[in-house]
Write a structure and sequence with these properties.
Order of helices and strands: HHHEEEHHEHEHEEHEHEEHEHHHEHEEH
Number of helices: 15
CATH superfamily of the largest domain: Type I PLP-dependent aspartate aminotransferase-like (Major domain)
Strand order of the largest sheet: 4-11-10-9-8-5-6-7
Shape: globular
Structural class: alpha/beta
Largest sheet: 8 strands, mixed
Number of strands: 14
CATH topology of the largest domain: Aspartate Aminotransferase, domain 2
Strand content: 15-25%
Helix content: 25-40%
Number of domains: 3
Distance between the termini: 29 Å
Amino acid sequence: MPITGRGSQEIADSVERSIVRGALASGAALPPIRDLAGELGVNPNTVAAAYRMLRDRGLVETGGRRGTRVRGRSASTPREDEAGALPPGVRNAADGNPDPRLLPDLGAALAEVARRRRGRHTLYGDPPVVPALAEVAREAFAADGVPADEVAVTSGALDGIDRLLRSSLRPGDAVAVEDPGWPAEFDLVAAQGLKRVGVALDDEGMRPDALAAALRAGVRAVVLTSRAQNPTGAVVTAERAALLRAELAGYPNVLTVEDDHGFGFAERPFAAVAGATERWAVVRSVAKGYGPDLRLAVLAGDPVTVDRVRAQLQAGQGWVSRVLQEAFVELWRGGAVDPAAVGRVYAERREALIGRLAENGVAAYGRSGVNVWVPLEDEAAAVGALLARGWAVAPGRRFRIDADPGIRVTVSALDPGDMPALAAAITTATRAPGPAV
């Protein structure tokens, strides 16, 4: 499908239609700016502006001499889109979900909220944060040494990160992200027209030397995971947090965002990096510990950063459902979840798989959360071989920028008794992988 248009908007829309309809495939190169300008009879600046629009929409990426290409995974693609429906008999170790058996029943909490709300409705102009939620959030943050004088509520962790970046950065700014890391976060950065800078990590989170290199390169924000890192299960320890704070201290204007989606289900303690820079926020989602459909995250941060998030909310959706806020308070105060107990269950499953793989001579990582990361050379072939043996796992390519290949194995739907068979299948696939399917 040829690219058409005279203005930048028309040209960008033409390219977008070609991408959506499949005429421009993933990885396809767009014509050089001057070549397309000559073909359309327009100024090269018009084409350059169109390409910027496409980048801001998360549809293309620039790669220096490689030119401008269609992104390998459009920012509009649904999360976890590649998992799909599994063939009969295939066990799901791919989707990254929590174990529904370990989530609390929402019915009792919602019924109690409904009982207390009888005859009462939230109206426009009511406070956006339920006072009881602000109280329990400050209590939880304070227990981990996080200043929480200013809090806001967003519709999940990704919504919080989105608002934090959108209110502080501009298209073209660079953001340091974990590599390997969360694909939805990668897509979010691309959709905002921001530049993604991968930072290598180990079992204790971002490596200080890799973060230092990203800071020297001029990143305007750093987004890191506190615990239960996706996909590696890394945990930022107190010692590592101190080293990261030392690196960040020389860059006071860099926005530091800590994603603590491990709240409520990760057994490892939280170690704060917050406060190393003047602009900071800690985002705590309740999705994995209390239920994804609560769509709730609480963030604390410096007054300017939190105020910007509040302003965005006020200008748009206004507030996150107070029904959901009150339901979480019921769950929290009623002790519906024992985070330590849930964490021990997930730890038992991870350690059973990692231990079996170690016995087979296969290295694997996962210190917290629901995922285990297995490095290997040919991830596509390994995924296909495992599927043929009755196991669905996630290919590492969707989680990587420059990191080495691997596969992500989610243990949520499994039990320790499943691990010998799974480990044997991974070992076979790692050493003698079959064809990718």
